[in-house]
Design goal:
Elements (H helix, E strand, L loop, with lengths): L8 H8 L8 H17 L10 H5 L29 E8 L19 H5 L6 E9 L2 E8 L4 H4 L11 H9 L2 E10 L2 E4 L7 E3 L4 E5 L18 E3 L4 E6 L5 E5 L17 H5 L11 H4 L18 E4 L9 E3 L11 E4 L4 E7 L7 E9 L13 E8 L4 E6 L2 H4 L4 H6 L1 H7 L8 E6 L6 E5 L31 E7 L8 E9 L26 E6 L5 E5 L16 E5 L6 E6 L5 E7 L5 E7 L20 E7 L7
Bound molecules: MU-OXO-diiron and calcium ion (CA) (3 copies).
The site of MU-OXO-diiron (FEO) has 7 residues, from loops.
Amino acid sequence: MKNLDDLSFDDFDEAINPRPEECDFDRIMDAALSRRDLFKGVIAFGGVAAFGNTLMSSPATAAPNRFAFDAIGINTEDTLNVPPGYNSQVVVRWGDPLWSDAPEFDHATRGTGASQAKAMGDNNDGMEVYAHGDKTVLIANNEYCNRSIIWGNREEGKADGADDYLKGMNAHGLTAVELVENDGEWSIVKDSPYNRRFTPDVAMEITGPAAGHDLMKTNADPEGKVVLGTFNNCGNGSTPWGTYLACEENFNGYFATEDQEHEVSAEMKRYGVTPKGRGYGWDQIDDRFDVVKDPNEANRHGYVTEVNALDPNSTPKKRTALGRFKHENAEVVVNGDGHIVVYMGDDERGEFLYRFVSNGVYAPGGETDSLLEDGKLYVAKFSDDATGQWLELTPESTGMASMAEVCIHTRIAASAVGATTMDRPEWVSANPKAAEVYCCLTNNKNRGVKTNAGGDETPVGGPNPREANKYGQIVRWRPTDADHTSDTFAWDLYVLAGNPSVHAEGLEGGSDNVNEGNMFNSPDGLKFDSNGLLWIQTDGNYSNEKDFAGQGNNQMLAGDPATGEIRRFLTGPKQCEITGLTWSPDKRTMFVGVQHPGERGEGNWPDGGDSAPRSAIVAVRRDDGGLVG
Ligand code: FEO
Ligand code: CA
Ligand code: CA
Ligand code: CA
């Protein structure tokens, strides 16, 4: 087995919790049937659109060509590139101090536990910008730390002692920081009252059905209502009442114990919590991360956390009503009748797509605290005939004892109702111009090959049409009657990524809106701008060879939802992922996240020379200062 530290999150999960290989007759039959269905027309732009007729007559199609830029080519250099007429600038990097009493980032030592607690965290991912009077406040997730880089001052990039573990821990969580613009250049405002780090040691309130349940009680919190910290937040969401939603993803790898033979419960296993940690070492410095000493602590992570970034004294709230799984992002929609609908993916091979519907309705200026605390949770079931339904998760439908249990063991609840296993649902985004929602299904090498972690089959078909899916696709759905609370929908595929120069024919070449000039793999970040243009960010294979030849470094593209046209807008430096997207209040700046540049030892972006590579947030503007979103 490879060193566990070097594996991707998904490969780590499988290494510690192997699942059986399956290739039975039923599955082969399923695959054959679904391929036939696929060609009946669920690829919108590769064949006959499933709901193409309605789409083509929607108002979103009325606009002429909405791309305000010329497509750019791929990049394999250690640079960030944008189209002619645009410029980019680094705004804030991992390790930049937020307060003037903290030291500047030290490339030799890469900081200490104390300096990291006062600096921008590592691996920025989902983010949002909020306007407060004339102030601009950015809040960003710091998903994880690049261990070999943050400990790059140590032999073989391994932690040496408790402060190294603490430095890694403090690089996690969230960062809020005030930004200011002068003559088109953005910078952070040191010592601003808005500046704040939410490290894994900051107290947060547990709300919703799981609050106070026995499974949430720990040594330090016998009431099960207050948890320290949020970590491994991937994508994000934002509410119409101005709060930020941070989404906890691969939380399992932080839990470990000395006894490698220790047997955890089946419920823990479903979430990938085992005695084998991923090498962060938090169990070495805090007993709550030891699965023997405090087994329930892991049940308190894997949620969506609501944060008011504009009130530096606010206490973040973990919203257990939105379920516990490896959350990617949380796309909030205000339905026509005022109900709040939140769409959420669970990013692991063969996991599910979820929807939350508030019981109350949103009214601007009204009470909003209960909206994400009190509601119904659903999981998606897709049919091969291009329709689907939302299945409600309740004690009755799942056989569980309470809603608390449904909200803590949500994956198991979803398996019980027969939800559709998906190709790793990443970001979800709703079109502001039409009642339709898109979700990146990034890739899934286990599709049609292995079950998910719960033993659910992963048949080839429906929105997951390729065995051992290596390129990914974007599925979209339209709720019946344009009502996001409706329990049924119609779906199709917006794009099937692929490589038409390597695979001249067949599904590996991608749908018809993929060509040699715009091809990419592993769509992940996804966000509509206010004009209804769909921005697609990739977290894929950047080898630029074999199946991925001609695709270069990770990138950001824009897609027209109406015509299916996709253009490449930005390319990132070596070994990075592009993730996280938001706009300045005046929409003249687009903030784009560059995560883990040089993650495998090649690249020194953004500082160059022999410097440590650093995740960073970049401001992209038009040279003429025009609108960018
Ligand atoms: Fe953190 Fe699913 O990406
Ligand atoms: Ca992601
Ligand atoms: Ca990803
Ligand atoms: Ca990532």
